[in-house]
Amino acid sequence: MNVRLVCLLLALASPALVHATSEQTAPAEKAAVLHPLKGIVVDVMTSRQALMVKHEEIPGVMRAMTMMFRVEPEVLEAVKKGDAIKGLMGRDEHNRWILRDVVVVAAAN
Ligand SMILES: [Cu+2]
C-alpha cells in the first residue's frame, strides 16, 4: 500500500471517526459550555479553592451579581482582592460554578 493510498483512506475514515467521537462526548461538551465573564475579585477564598467575584451581566446566562467560582490553584496565587479579571465561566462535573482562563485586566491599587 503506497503513501497516497493510505492518506486517501485516512481522509475517508476520519469524518466517520470524528462523528462517532462527537456523539460519544456530546453530554460532557454540553456540560462544559463556557461563557466569557468580566468582574472584580471581591475575595480570594484559598481554603475553598475559589474566588468571590462581582461579575457583569452575562447576556442570556446570568444577571450581574457577586458569586463564588472554583478556580485552578495557581489562580489563587495570581490574583488579589480588587483585581479586575476576565475569564470563562461554566460548571464542572459536580455542577459547581468554575472560572477558567482567568486573566487580570487591571490590578488592584
Ligand atoms: Cu453569577
Rg, rounded, reads 20 Å
Structural class: alpha+beta
Oligomer: single chain
Uncertain spans, ≥5 residues at pLDDT below 50? Answer: 14-26
Total helices: the number is 2
For the largest beta-sheet, the strand count, sense and barrel status come to: 5 strands, antiparallel
CATH architecture of the largest domain: Beta Barrel
Q: How many strands in all?
A: 5
The count of domains is 2
CATH superfamily of the largest domain: Copper binding periplasmic protein CusF
The backbone outline, from C-alpha atoms, is globular
- Percentage of residues in DSSP E strands: 35-45%
Question: What does the average pLDDT come to?
Answer: 83
**Cofactors and ligands:** copper (II) ion
Q: What would the CATH topology of the largest domain be?
A: OB fold (Dihydrolipoamide Acetyltransferase, E2P)
The spatial strand order of the largest sheet comes to 3-2-1-4-5
Q: Helix and strand string, N-terminal first?
A: HEEEHEE
**CATH class term of the largest domain:** Mainly Beta
Helix content: 25-40%
User: What distance separates the N and C termini?
Assistant: 66 Å
